[in-house]
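Morning run. Coffee first, then this:
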Amino acid sequence: MGNRPNILFMHSHNTGTHIEPYGHAVPTPHVQRLAEEGVLFRRAYATAPTCSPSRASFLTGMYPHSCGMLGLAHRGFAMSNCDWHAARIFKANGYFTATAGVEHTMPNLNAIGYDAVLSGLDTNYPNLPKRIEPAGAVVDFLTNAPRQPFFLNLGLNETHRPFHKADPQNHPAEREQFCLPPRPLPDTPETRADMADYKASARVMDDHYGKVLAALEETGLAEHTLTFCFADHGLQFPRNMCNLTDHGIGVYLIIRGPGGFAGGKVANAMVSLMDVLPTAYCVAGIEIPDHVEGKSLCPLVNGGEDRHREEIFSEVNYHAAYEPMRSIRTERYKYIRRYDGRDKLVLPNVDDTPTKAFLLDQNWEKLPRDQEMLYDLMFDPDEAHNIIDREDMAPIRKALRERLDEWMAETHDPLLPDSYVAAPSGSRVNDPDGQSPNDAPQVMPSEKLF
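And here it is:
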């Protein structure tokens, strides 16, 4: 293997920061140990609060619109060019490439070109052969690892819904009467019960991670493997996932291994999930390709910089329905802009859950929906009080509007200049005036439907 480290990506589905190392009452002992041995990034953010765009972003090091991933793979959206994918780059540099579990970046997983698909247990690729659950497949792979260095991508389906059922008798943390629902949701019996089931899924997620981490130790690969552990975006709860507040884009990120990622350190600088791949390239000695827009985290953990990013950009285009949004986050402020002109919620972009049903019973759909939002994150971390119209915020409002426009122009955002992103022909998109993502979608023609 020479001096080139193995690269392992381990990521979960819809988990946000709701794990033990981030202070939540969600027992995840294996991830806690990883944090104590590696580097934990307290302020890590996804480039999109939806699955396929975020995954395509961290597997290319590009913004979702830059790599063409504007919606969900199982609904007919795809990256523009698979040559940007990590599997292609690592393979071209002598790495054996493998994946297990949730990939969700192309309608056809085989188009990416991994050397091995270890497990077909990805709900988005139902036609792949189902061998064993993804973590078990990874353990088998590590037990018989190739002599050449490898890039291994493990995507867990946990903590995607449907959640595993809470087991309060054997796991006291899952007693619903002692659970606290995620912000910014109300604390009610309905939301507490939903959170108890989330904790059960987090427990299963952590068990899967534990199997893989144990296999790394038992095979002697741990010290020579740079392990990245993170979530794709926020929780699959209303007002979290598919929102550009920190509840939707905030994620856990822990890195352990060669290159200075050791010692139980904590990094407080703002970082993006788009930065994990250039970090892997850097430690692996691979020249970072020109298409990569992320920044290696190596200078941050090795003392070369105190601040990594001055701003974080994130986006939404399509989820179940079209809901175009862009945001810029600085140390102090968050500016979010919508581009659909709607004053009503896009309910198909909120998954059908007990918490959604509870909120709808409280007339949630009648709340106002602003097109522009500005939040002071120091005094309003829940991003609940829109101060876009405050006179004293005029300079901040102007600066963030202009910087967001500059970024969109710099990255050739398809929202410019006509403020509409067309879905690909044949993709399946819900009517934004619907109630559920499970309503029958419409197959998109080449022109605008809504």
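The mean pLDDT is 94. Good start to the day.
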